[in-house]
Amino acid sequence: MKSLSLLVGALAAASSVEAHYIFNILFVNGKKIGGEYTYVRKNSNSYNPAFPDIVEKNDLRCNVGAKPGGGVKTYEVNAGDKIGFKVFNNELIEHPGPGMIYMSKAPNNDVSTYDGSGDWFKVWETGLCKGNAASDGNWCSYNKDRLEFTIPPKTPPGEYLVRVEHIGLHEGHKSKAQFYIECAQLKVNGPGGGSPSPLVKIPGIYQQADPGIRYNKWTSNPAPYVMPGPKPWDGN
C-alpha cells in the first residue's frame, strides 16, 4: 500500500508539472522566429508559475529573474503584424483562466536595457468564449498552444517590451492563482498616430484580492468573471 501511495503521489506531481507552461517562442504572422528565448527574456523559475504575491513586486513585469541583458535579441516587426507567443515543448495551456498582452515603449528607445519601469498599456485580452467559468473548455485560451494578437496599426513606432500573461485560476479559490508571464523585445515600425491608453505602471495593475484573481470557478454557477487590470487600448 505504501508503494501504491508513493506511485499515486508521483503521478500527481508529474501531472501538475506537465500542466505548467512558458511562452518563450515568438511567432510573427504565423511563422516561428528564432528558438526558445531568442527574443524572449528568460525567467529563473522556468515553466513554474508565480503566485499572487508577485502582483506587488517588480517581477510582475516580466517574471521572476527576467531582467535586461542576457543576450536576448530584439526583433523588428510592423504595426499591423500578428504576433504570437507559443508555449514551449509543444505543450498546451492546460489551465482555465484569462490571457492578456501589454506593451511598454522603452523611454530611451533601447529595449535591451529597459527594466519595464515606464508606462504600460494593455493591448489585448481573452477570457470566456461561452457559458460560465465552471467548464475549462469555455475559456478561449484553454488547450491552445499560444496567445496571439495584432499590433494596432496606429501603434507609435519604437522599441517595446511586449508582455504576455496567462493566469491559471484552478486554485484561485485558495488564493493561489498561477501567473505565467514572459516579455519579448520588439521594434515596431509604422506610421504611428495613435495614443495608447490607459497608461499604467507594473506593479500596480492588480491586487491579490481582485475578483478576477481570487476567483472560485468550482461551483455549479460561478460568479460572472471580471477581467483583471485596465481596459485594452482601442487602437486609436
TrEMBL record:
Reaction catalysis annotation: [(1->4)-beta-D-glucosyl]n+m + reduced acceptor + O2 = 4-dehydro-beta-D-glucosyl-[(1->4)-beta-D-glucosyl]n-1 + [(1->4)-beta-D-glucosyl]m + acceptor + H2O
InterPro entries given in the database record: AA9, AA9_LPMO
GO biological process: cellulose catabolic process
Sequence ranges assigned to domain Auxiliary Activity family 9 catalytic in this UniProt record: 20-220
Keyword tags: Carbohydrate metabolism, Cellulose degradation, Copper, Disulfide bond, Hydrolase, Metal-binding, Monooxygenase, Oxidoreductase, Polysaccharide degradation, Secreted, Signal
A Pfam family the protein falls into: AA9
EC number: 1.14.99.56
Protein family (similarity comment): Belongs to the polysaccharide monooxygenase AA9 family.
Protein's name according to its UniProt entry: lytic cellulose monooxygenase (C4-dehydrogenating)
